[in-house]
Design brief:
With 201 residues, the protein is an alpha+beta fold. 16% of the residues lie in helices and 35% in strands. Strands 1, 2, 5, 6, 7, 8 and 9 form a 7-stranded mixed β-sheet that branches. Strands 3-4 form a two-stranded antiparallel ribbon. The N and C termini lie close together (5 Å).
Length: 201
């Protein structure tokens, strides 16, 4: 296993309930319509940041949008930064019939997924992410620049990634990633520019 090291100064805003599920190993993918991609110039998808902190937010989170009960995110001047995500594999799904096969790997309701899939034009980016946990979390003071509806936020200071614990150990991760590969290899329509070899470190 290659453990993250060094520091990271970017964070990805995601519903607090989804962050909680990722931190428990209940969820292993991020489903995004946009706001995350660059084109490598070769027709392949490249995430803007292959590794990032998860920045929990309640913005636009509705209880009916999640299948699992969502924790209440305390409002205040600080946000707890606990989880680091590393993108291991990317696929774009264009076949709506493939979506139910992914339900065991996320906590979004079918309606939420369908709405995202059909927004503007059919399709979703599926990011398989491996998650590391920091205990205790680092509380950061939020800034006006981090507010609002945006995918990426820049932290005032990069946070250290050393000494974190994987949410799923190598064996658990290999099993999850292998199952996802079987589903997504038949559902994707574009090559992934980032592919670390699903299930392998």
């Amino acid at each position: 296993m290659t453990t993250p090291s060094g520091s990271c100064g970017v964070a990805f805003k995601e519903w607090a309930g989804v962050c909680e599920a990722l931190g428990r190993g209940r969820q292993s993918i991020l489903l995004r319509k946009g706001g995350i991609s660059e084109d490598s110039g070769a027709g392949a998808f490249v995430p803007e940041h292959p590794a990032f902190w998860l920045f929990p937010t309640a913005v636009h989170q509705a209880q009916q949008g999640l299948r699992d009960e969502s924790p209440t995110l305390a409002t205040g001047p600080t946000v707890p930064i606990r989880l680091l995500a590393r993108v291991e594999h990317v696929r774009r799904v264009v076949d709506e019939a493939s979506l139910p096969a992914l339900e065991n790997f996320h906590i979004l309701t079918p309606e939420t997924v369908r709405n995202r899939f059909h927004y503007r034009e059919p399709g979703l980016w599926i990011l398989i992410v491996r998650i590391w946990r920091r205990d205790p979390p680092i509380a950061i003071e939020t800034t006006p620049g981090q507010a609002g509806c945006k995918t990426w936020v820049t932290l005032d200071q990069p946070l250290p990634m050393d000494g974190m614990t994987p949410v799923l150990d190598d064996r658990e991760w290999a099993a999850v990633a292998s199952r996802l590969a079987c589903i997504l290899d038949g559902a994707g329509d574009r090559p992934a520019a980032i592919d670390r070899g699903i299930g392998a470190e």
